[in-house]
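User: tokens in, sequence out, please.
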């Protein structure tokens, strides 16, 4: 998954990578930008507080941390063209047979994807490029961009989305406004647990790097795990 493969015409040449070899080099001297909302996201107050506190702790590892106000707009409507269309394409030919077996939320995604037109796809390609021209500017000044991973804590099993943000009529994935932008840009991103709510639910902090700079993202994740260990915590069974 990390190197070239002739079966995938979109795969890129890659120099030998030993991610473990650089994992413990630390992040001293790196410049970290923290965005609490990417300029458009609604975030649960408890999640926002915990993520802001954890982002500041990169300074404990020698990095410079700065909260930034971005001028981004929500890329949701662009991203869903690729997301819905890609899923719909995989099941379109067997929908009559397998449709009744699909989760209702997934079936809704497929049905919406089947309504997309070629012109919608081309417009989304144009919008994605425009978004990238804005997103990449952050990394002219900073080495990493840090955000909450999700806007809310875990919601009950069996629900496709929480009641907030957006309410019952909100967009299906409005609760994940921090992750899909980087599906569009193709940048490496990782989620690291950064604490637990009063209800005992985990909260994640997302670390995003420049394109192809997986090494730095992993080093930052490692540094945060050393500052805020979490791996020994297990739910009570």
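Assistant: Sequence out:
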């Amino acid at each position: 998954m990390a190197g070239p493969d002739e079966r995938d015409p979109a795969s890129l040449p890659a120099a030998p990578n030993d991610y473990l070899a650089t994992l413990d080099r630390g992040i001293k001297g790196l410049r970290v930008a923290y965005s609490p909302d990417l300029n458009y996201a609604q975030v649960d107050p408890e999640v926002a507080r915990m993520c802001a506190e954890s982002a500041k702790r990169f300074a404990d590892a020698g990095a410079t941390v700065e909260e930034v106000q971005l001028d981004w707009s929500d890329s949701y409507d662009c991203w869903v063209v690729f997301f819905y269309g890609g899923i719909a394409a995989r099941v379109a030919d067997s929908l009559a047979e397998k449709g009744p077996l699909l989760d209702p939320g997934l079936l809704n995604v497929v049905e919406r994807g089947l309504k997309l037109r070629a012109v919608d796809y081309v417009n989304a390609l144009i919008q994605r490029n425009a978004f990238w021209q804005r997103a990449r500017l952050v990394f002219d000044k900073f080495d990493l961009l840090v955000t909450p991973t999700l806007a809310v804590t875990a919601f009950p099993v069996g629900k496709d989305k929480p009641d907030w943000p957006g309410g019952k009529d909100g967009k299906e994935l409005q609760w994940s406004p921090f992750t899909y932008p980087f599906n569009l840009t193709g940048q490496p991103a990782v989620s690291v647990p950064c604490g637990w709510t009063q209800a005992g639910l985990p909260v994640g902090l997302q670390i995003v790097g420049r394109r192809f700079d997986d090494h730095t993202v992993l080093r930052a994740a490692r540094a945060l795990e050393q500052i805020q260990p979490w791996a020994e915590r297990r739910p009570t069974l």
